[in-house]
## 1
Amino acid sequence: MPGETLLIVDDNPVNTKLASITLKVAGYDVHSAGDAYEALEVLQTLRPALILMDLQMPGMDGLTLTRQLRNDPDQRDVRIIAITSYAMKGDEEKALAAGCDGYIPKPIDTRTFAETIAGYLSTDRASA
C-alpha cells in the first residue's frame, strides 16, 4: 500500500539503498537504521506500518530485536519481515518463532519486492 511508512533495519548500506530505492519508487515512505540500537532510537518517534529486519547484524541481532519489539506494547503490532542473505535451513522457522510475520531471502528481486511488501501490508497481522 503505497504511502505507508516503512523502516529498514540493516547494517549493509548497499542492501538498504537497494531496498529503499525500490520501495520509494513504489510510493512508500522509507526510513532506515544501520543496527538494532539505531532502530530503537528511530522507533521512539516513528510508527512504521512494517519493519524489514535483517537477521545478521553486529551487536544485537534481528531476532533479538524482534523479540524485544514483540514485548513492547507500543510496537508489538507492527509487522516485521525478516530479510537475510544468510538463508540457511531453519532460518525462516527461527524468524517466525521470534515473532516475524514473514521472511524474504536476499538478494531481493527488485521486480517483485514492492508487490511482496504490499501483500504483507494488506494482510491483517493477527492472521499473517
## 2
Amino acid sequence: MTEASDRRPRRVPLDVRALGGPADIFRINRTSKPDPAVSAWLNDGANELRPVAKRWFLAMRACGEDVREAMHDGCPVACIGDAPFAYVNSFKNHVNVGFFRGSQLRDPHRLLEGTGKMMRHVKVMPDQPPNEAALGELITAAYLELKSLEGERARNIRRRD
C-alpha cells in the first residue's frame, strides 16, 4: 500500500444546527375538527385525572376557529392545520400539558419542564393546582407563536409562486 492510500479521508465537521432550526415545524396527518377519538379519550372515566386533562384541552380548543385535533402517540393534540402546538396526557399521579415548541415560549412563572430541543410540558398535580392564569397564557402563547409561523410560511409560499 502506498502512503496516500493509508490515509483516512479528511473528516469535514457538520453543523447539525443548520439541519433544523426553530422554524422547523413538526406535522401530523389526519387532523380534524373535532376528532371523535380525542373526544372519546377526554371522556374516558377510567382515568380519574382525565377531567383535569380535559379542562386544559378545552382551553386549547378555544384558542381559535382554526384549531384542529388528532390523537398522536396515544394522547390528544391541538393543531393549526396539521401543525401541533400543544397536547395533554394523563398519568396515574399527574397530567402533562405539553407544548411542541415550548422552548420558544416565554415562561416568566417558570412552569415549563423539560430539556429537549423544542418540547416542554407543565406537570399538573391534583394536590398542587397550577397557576391557572399562567398556564392559560402559555397555551395562548403556543397557539399564537405557531399561528405566526404558519402565516409566515404561507406568505413565503405565495412569494415563490
